[in-house]
Amino acid sequence: xxxxxxGSLFDDDEELVSIRAKQRSLEQAHKEVINLPARxxxxxxxxxxxxxxxxxxxxxxxxxxxxxxxxxxQIENVLRTQRHSIAMIxxxxxxxxxxxxxxxxxxxx
Length: 109
What we know:
By secondary structure, the protein is mainly α. 93% of the residues lie in helices and 0% in strands.
C-alpha cells in the first residue's frame, strides 16, 4: 500500500509541474497581449520613418526620368491631340442633339 501512496505522490508532482508549466506559458502569452498595442505602435512608427521599398524608389525614378525626357514639343503634341478629341466629342454631341430634335419634329409634325 505504501507503494501506491508514493506512486500517487509522484503523479501529483508531475501534474503540479505540468500545471505550473501551463501557468508560465499563459502568463507569457498574457504579457505579450498586454504589450501588443505598444509593439504595434512602435512598428508603425518604424515603418513611417523608414525609406519606401526599393521597387517604389525605382518606379519614382523611372517616372522622373520619363518626365525629364519629354521635350516641349512632345507635350504640346499630346495637349493638341487631347484638344482635338474634346472638340470631336463636342461636335458629335451637338450633331446627336440636332438629329434628335429633327426626329422629334418629324414625329410630331
